């Protein structure tokens, strides 16, 4: 069980620093080592990201920090909650279309690689791109819905997609985007988790694995939040870019393995 804790702990540290939740690391790494079935990895990743984001957002609110922009963040989060349920059902449809779960995992990995490449390109070119400032609640809900669908379908919680959207559509700086991203992730993962329970679609898993990963998620959230306070925007950006490059490599390898398994 040590590897489960280590993966979730390290992923959640980086996730809390960058505002990507950790699922974007947990999912491809667990796929890489074939630690569980695709459905079980999605569920464990969801629970881990939910616990980490709950801690991080809760601490931010209790500390009175003003990083979360509730006026736009709440409509985004509500849209993401609905999208999280839709994305989960979309994945179930894709999974049912293939006799081999590894093929469904390859589809997820391919989509994740494509999204991450786009995120990396945007981040590198960010200084040259004019951003927008959307404040209309309906527009925020629609954007949140799209974020929730993509993050839940990919089983990553939100990750880099959230940051790019917050950069471009809401002109947020790196650390403000990270805080708001975790707020959105909390809602989308909570909705996905509740939907899983209500539809009785919880996959088979070991209690010990879940406990280790949730503990790692909360522990990583504690450490990552402390690091986030000490790092400036430039350092967070560099960490994020390096992480995206690694995830692209792992995801492409997972596509190959999934199609040949």
> Radius of gyration from the CA trace?
17 Å
Separate helix tally: 10
Shape: globular
Mean of residue pLDDT values: 88
- What kind of sheet is the major sheet? none
Task: Count the domains.
Answer: 1
Order of helices and strands: HHHHHHHHHH
Taking the alpha carbons of the first and last residues, their distance comes to 25 Å
- What is the count of β-strands? 0
Fraction in helix: over 70%
Low-confidence stretches: none
Care to describe what's here?
The protein is an all-alpha fold and 261 residues long. The protein has one domain. The protein is built from 10 helices and no strands. The protein has helices spanning 2-18, 23-33, 38-62, 70-96, 101-125, 137-154, 159-170, 174-198, 207-230, 233-260. Helix 1 packs parallel to helix 9, helix 4 packs parallel to helix 6 and helix 6 crosses helix 8 (174-198). The two termini are 25 Å apart. The mean pLDDT is 88.
Can I get a quick summary?
It contains ten helices and no strands. The chain has 261 residues and is mainly alpha-helical.
